[in-house]
Amino acid sequence: MQKLIISSSPHLRDKTTTRSIMQDVCIALLPAVIAGILFFGYRSALIVLVAVAAAVLSELIYCKATHQKNTTGDFSAVVTGMLLAMNLPASVPLWMPVVGSIIAIILVKMIFGGIGQNFVNPALLARAMLALSWATIMTKFPEPAFGNLAGVDAVASATPLAAGGAYSIGQLFLGNIPGVIGETCKLALLLGAAYLLWKKVISWHIPAAFIGVFAVCYLIGTGFNVGLTVSQVLSGGLILGAFFMATDYSTSPTTDLGKLIFGAGCGLLLFIFRFARGGQSEWCSFAILLMNVVSPLIERVTMPKSFGEVSKHE
Amino acid sequence: MGVSQTFVGGIHPHELGNGKAVNGANAIIDMKAPAKVTIPLSQHVGAPAECLVKVGDTVNLGQVIGSARGAISAAVHASVSGKVIAVGPATIASGKSVTAVTIENDFEDRWDESVVPTEDPDAGSIARIAAEKGIVGMGGAAFPTAVKLEVSQLNPRPDMLVVNGSECEPYLTSDHRLMLEAPEQIIDGVLLAMKATGITKARIGVEDNKMDAVEALQAAAKDGVEVVALPAKYPQGYEKMLIYALTGRKVPNGGLPSAAQCVVLNVATCAALSLAVRQGRPLIDRIVTVGGHVAKPGNYRVRIGASLLDLLECAGGLEPDVRKVIVGGPMMGNSIPSLNIPVTKNFGGLLALADEGVAPEESACIRCGRCVRACPMGLMPTQMDAYIRHDNIADAVRIGVLNCMECGSCTYVCPAKRELTQSFRMAKAMNRMKNSH
Predict the structure, then answer these.
(1) Does the beta-carbon distance from A18 to B252 stay under 8 Å?
(2) Largest Cα–Cα separation, chain A
(3) Closest to B408 (Cβ–Cβ): which among A9, A15, A311?
(4) Cβ-defined contact of B363 to A18 (cutoff 8 Å)
(5) Phi, psi for residue B426 in degrees, rounded to 5
(6) What's the CA gap between A200 and B323, in Å, rounded?
(7) What confidence tens digit (pLDDT) does each residue in B358-403 have?
(8) Which residue among A170, B97, B339, B368 is least crowded, i.e. fewest CB within 10 A of its CB?
(9) How close does chain A come to B313, measured CA to CA in Å?
């Protein structure tokens, strides 16, 4: 018999690992990637691949350059790359996902200490920086051409948000609309979201509060125009943002109450932006980024009461 | 059926089903008394017992060899008849070295004359018998039972006897088998404890993955004893969680069960109390689950002081892939460096783990919040750990690290495999050191 190992209890561990969680997120994003390819052609796949490769390479090079352990095995860079690509129109030049991934990984994540330490969502900040720096390229949305894999023409189309009611709810739900690669097909996104909820990678709190508060505000703001509210919920980046972006562990509270407040804040901000400033597809990113910044504060004020604290005061 | 409200948080270790099925299916096996027993004089919370024998003495089975000393202590008895061959230090499962009496077995099992039944005991004599017969909490804490039964000084007086049959640790099934095989004995012990304390209501909590035990106890229950099925969830058997589940009362932080007007006893302790009163039999043996990578896993009735080497020989020996041996359950038990350790009164399990027991490498916290959801005490493990790793013990204390009961739920669920429980143990120890200077 080998020498017996001595260690602190507990002596059993759950099978879930950081890597398995990140791989689950990748799996959950696949339906939306496939939808992106079906609507916007093979170039969608190319952009996803380039973004992922650039994200993983950025992390690898950063780790080597700073003499740290290579952390790319945790798959979180793959998730960041995929999420960034989901936020880009299929018509962008290929250097764009590269620049975006470098911003997301080096500037937002690694410099602040790597996984778990970034204070805003890497993919979202990268999208925001790209949108501010190259506004014309980033707002040129290709028209969907279902099944036409060969390609898309980079025509400047308005998104449904700006177009205002030009698309049916069915089109908005299936994704047969101009937009970025991973945002348009709500059916695919909801499939992925269901998978994340089922695997307990995310909880319902943030998406429910986010979408719920936004919808309620919009209903009230429009004098209970249900049709318009539904099309607003299905437009822009709300569904992708609520399930895949706002639920980012590092940049959202860990407490259930904190998650509800965080999600509600996202919903409220998005409503204010869209209602007051009109349709622009980046609003969802900005709403989440702003809430990211106050997330530590929310966590602090929603710290749970310990089990024995109640009866002391009773 | 009464109330059953469970605490928020907790975990469902996936091994729970597997380990339990293997160990719980078969009847308790009597382990042959070993040729030699080493009986520590300190097997309980409180002062070590005072040694009453010397090398060369002949002792009888059940004879007192150590007497209780001070307010919180417990007597210790010979678990075989034979000759005292050594009185000296021995290492126990916690790693501590304590004085122990080694007796060479003459295999006569000659009962001591003090082992006589008590007919119709009155309230006062039950606690006295518990003290004389060395009864201590067999669920793990080993707190002297007589002290718990002495409630006359408490204000307010306890009004509920909470009996722990939840056995929430994975792998362990010793209480499960006892509940199936000796439900009347357990109920009798519960009734005796009720009589001793003047408490008229008792609730026995059993996790609902042991419905056969619930039924067995229910069939035997009478006179104010209620059996309640609880959701199978770790750590349901922890004192504070159990009191909450059975009574809806919360023990304040830093408080004892008496603050919630409860007395808590384990089912095995109740059975031992019954034997002590009805047969005069001291605590000289107990049921131990031997599980994991051993040839014959199961539940064994083992004499106190038997070496783990003897116990493992009885269980067919360790398999070659064993990397770690644990005394107690896998969530809160101690890993031990050597098998030359005696079975003591609070010894619920012996587990042999292979690679599944080897701690994986730590990685960075991803702030997923799984630990926050799992913590049954409503703490924020990730935040406490972050403070502790920055040597900021004061802030860790401020947000409640002293309320951590070290159940291990946070560490179990952590996907980054961080040693959270260890971090909290260290912080608590450092806080104690700071306060003692």
Answers:
(1) no
(2) 76
(3) A9
(4) yes
(5) -65, -45
(6) 32
(7) 889 999 999 999 999 999 999 999 999 999 999 999 999 999 999 9
(8) A170
(9) 15
List of domains in chain A: 18-301 (1.10.3430)
Mutate to test the interface with A, among B367, B387, B397, B398 (most CBs of A within 10 A): B367
Q: Are the Cβ atoms of A71 and B363 closer than 8 angstroms? A: yes
The span from the first CA to the last CA of chain A, in angstroms, equals 56
For A76, which residue in chain B has the nearest alpha carbon?
Answer: B366
Beta-carbon separation of A5 and B324 below 8 A:
yes
Please say whether the dihedral angle defined by the alpha carbons of residues B129, B134, B140 and B143, taken in this order, is positive or negative. positive
Q: Which residues of chain A have pLDDT under 70?
A: 1-2, 147-165, 279, 310-314
**What ipTM, to 2 d.p.?**
0.91
| Paired tokens of A121 | 């969502």
CB B237 within 8 A of CB B167: yes
Dist CA B170 CA B234 (whole Å)? 8
Q: Tell me the H-state helices in chain A.
A: 18-40, 42-65, 76-86, 95-102, 122-133, 135-138, 160-163, 169-174, 186-198, 205-221, 226-233, 238-240, 256-277, 283-301, 309-313
Minimal CA separation from A44 to chain B, in Å: 29
Q: What confidence tens digit (pLDDT) does each residue in A84-143 have?
A: 999 999 999 999 999 999 999 999 999 999 999 999 999 999 999 999 999 888 888 888
* CB contacts, 8 Å: A303 with chain B: 380, 383, 399
A255–B contact, CB cutoff 8 A: yes
